[in-house]
Design brief:
The protein is α+β, with helices and mostly antiparallel strands and 571 residues long. It is built from 13 helices and 21 strands. It has two domains: 224 residues, Distorted Sandwich (Beta-galactosidase, Chain A, domain 5); 196 residues, no CATH class. Belongs to the OXA1/ALB3/YidC family. Type 1 subfamily.
Length: 571
Amino acid sequence: MNQTRVFLLIAWLLVATLLWMEWNKEKTAALQAPPVATQTASSNGAVPGAVPSAPTAAAAGVPAAPVQAGVPSSSTTKTAQADNAVVVTTDTLRITLDGGSVRNAELLKFPNEAKSNDTGNVALFDPTPAGFYEAQSGWVSSTGAAPDHLANFLPEGGARKVTLAAGQDSVEVPFIWTGANGVTIRRTYTFPRGGYAIGVRDEVVNQGSANWQGYVYRQLVRNPPPQKTGYTNPEAFAFHGAAWYTPNDKYERRKYDDFVDDGTLDKDATGGWIALLQHYFFAAWIPGEQDKSTFTLSTTQDGGVTRYVARAFGPRVDVAPGQKAETNARLWVGPKLVAAIEAQNVPGLTRAVDFSRFSIMATIAGWLFVVLSAIHSVVGNWGWSIIGLVILIRLLLYPIAAKQFQSMAKMRKLQPRMQQLKERYGDDRQKLQMATMELYKKEKVNPAAGCLPLLIQMPIFLALYWMLSESVELRHAPWALWIDNLSARDPYFILPIINVAIMWATQRLTPMAGMEPTQQKMMQLMPLVIGVTMIFFPAGLVLYWVTNGALGLLQQWSMLKRYGETEPAKA
């Protein structure tokens, strides 16, 4: 095997993936309308379409799976609650919330465009019907009144704008709900400096005369936008949908199109997390580590628009008269920054950085990112870090690649004799094959010796591809000279042209003996074909291929000089 064939195999895998994705789209059936949600009246008289029905009992503190539920069918209640909205600004977020719902979330350190200042920042939540996306939390109870996420939570202190002041490590925003049954729920949002994990603490105080039992629910509701397409767009290959993690079943995920066909999930969990993922960013509810809850997935219709609900239902809280209890969770709203996610110390949360659905590939990609980050901590530039990572990988795989190039060098030396065999036996393929195998045996050459090194390298190169595509750290990151955004295409196509030149030079050192003339012509066209496919790829990925190809060319030239003649191979 040789460098050109490596590129050919990569191209074939990409084409196969694209064909599979298109076939899967055609195969997916249209989403069916879900059953009508069970509805209960909230304390303010609104009908909470997204609130699950309250279970009557639950074993060992784990609530039964709630009935499939929808989302509010109109914005009437939201409009009535507008006066209760509070805008919170930290160094990383600008959030609008009303006590029951987080309705807007602007990521202040992530502009929509790399150079423009007038396109605003990335907004993860959206209250408008067209792009509806909210994080919601409420309560249900079979023993008395309880506030759903549409209930009239009132902000304490009367402030409608809260800003994290200089010197503050965090800022708290409390809301309170008071029921006619004497039950009071105080919900406090805590926003940390420099972080994206919002603390959500609910304190239940029972000042009534009867026991109160309630279940907290926390959910993400979204009308996802159309997913971008195009084989040169990394976002088209990123996962969009729900993901969750439980200690028993580990990491799992489900695309939006499969929400209905694959059922409501009903996954019991102690701790864990449930999220909605997209390219570079995600939102997730993270219950307490010891909290028992049920993860569910469902859909609802609102004016003909399908909305998708990912919910953590539970834990159960029992409060006797004169007593109080509390439950805590975290709401992640932000980018897939590995270091920030690891700082949460939540088992499995780093899998939200969805390098691959396969654990082994995700693990390899995670290791590669650790090395890439270590290099970046020294050089301070993601472009040079990519180059450094490729160099390290090449050094690590050098013994394997050396075997591959030794085999290539021996094959190259045999080209004149193989050509003589072709001229001698002409169209008698059987005799030609037998004579060729006899020549291999006599010269102790294994034509398949290069395949094993390639099989070992392929998982690493594929994992590196997905890692570079998914890493938000590279988003809008500059390299040098004309490359001011590694996540966008090369504006002048210089890197793709260099890549074509490197592949062509590599091919000139590649033995083509034994190939049919048609195969030889196809191989000669491969540098141009692959070069064209990479024209609109993100510059970071092309930089990786250019570096990898240049090192491969240098290594191949060195090996051929050491083990065989250096004259160019004739096509």
